Amino acid sequence: MPRWLILADDLTGAADCAVAFARRGHAAAVTWAENGGEADEAVLAIDADSRRLIARDAADRHAALLRPRLRPGLALYKKIDSTLRGQPAAELAATLTTLEECRPPALAVVAPAFPDTGRTTEGGRIRLNGAPLEDSPLWAREHSYANADLYAVLEGVGLPTALLPLAALRGGPEAVAAAMRHALSARCRALVCDSATTSDLETIARARGLLEFEPVWVGSGGLAAALASAEQPGQDPPLPRLPAARGGLLLVVGSLAEASRAAADHALAQGGLRHFGIPPALLHAGPVGWNVMAREIAAAIAAREDVLAMIEAEPGADLRQGAPLALALAELLQPAASQAGGLFATGGETARALLSRLGVQSIRLLEEVAPGVPFGLTRGARRLPVVTKAGGFGDTEIIRHVRHRLHAWLQEETAA
Q1: b/e map of 89-101 (b: 16 or more CB within 10 Å)?
Q2: Structurally, how many domains does the chain consist of?
Q3: Element (H or E) spanning 115, and its range?
Q4: How far is Cα 135 from Cα 362, in angstroms, rounded to an integer?
Q5: Which domain holds residue 100?
Q6: Which end of the chain is more exposed for a tag (fewer CB within 10 A), N or C?
Q7: Mean pLDDT of 368-392
Q8: Whether residues 76 and 214 fall in one domain
Q9: Is the pLDDT of residue 274 over 60?
């Protein structure tokens, strides 16, 4: 049974939290199986696939996933998006209520900052690369709340909330632990922690060892990495070798975020990739419309070419169509993916849909290619090397780094 349970609203977020523990030698996996998906890993992350749901449905899904897995001694991490996409407040409220069915009232320690990707929290408000999140293209394209004030967001779903400002946090782990105890005794259900650096998150994580209770930890990949670093290293057993690779790499960009489009454009400019731009209209047309392209992509993969397949951006794109487009894209790419030597997918919906189409429901996580960009092997009959990445961050070199790591891994396996 897992020692840590991570609940996330999408696949890439689940993976980039769990991989932090894998990097410290703890066996970690991510699953999106509705039932089962359990294994002997010390850390299990579950993708609730709730990013696009309304608040009530997202909350119900989290409660349903958590309830059968509750047991004494389990540490719980609620992964939320570092830019507040989806329904993190409703999901957290449901998580706390469900947890309290078998435990005393719980305190959520909320620290969504991920400084390595430009996300910080100051005065209880999220900032992106130093500017208010509300001023960013990410917020303009997709947001669930009136603003990025975490205190207001959590109070808005009935969670009494306290704030730990940056100056108090920098008093050290003892001061942070004291603030957590005070918030719990004051009947707060959430403590929002400012964090502007990785060191700030590490201070929060070190406070855990000073507590007499286990909070619910709430954050993105940044806080998960800090908590993992505060634990003793594990001894993850070696995995079986992979079968010989059959085809080229399939690199899929299903996200419309600016960072993902810029990385794809940069990778294409460097050369060495076969590019397939896929118009949304083609995906809406169904197999009759896309069969020719599907065969072309599969043939390129079979010929050991590395392929970059990308949904083409359209002005005024309707983000509500994200899930149907991801499912259609997965169907189009299935013949190619079934022959690929390795897979990279940007966007949680894209990664989940494509892997599910291959009959995969979980990934054993091994390492990070870059902060928030986990590398792992699919579990099951076929062990495929996979890299996933959230759409909203990453520099322009990330696809080059991913290609290099996947090719290096496959060469190591062949030589072993």
Answers
A1: bbbbbbbbbbbee
A2: 2
A3: none
A4: 36
A5: 4-229
A6: C
A7: 87
A8: yes
A9: yes
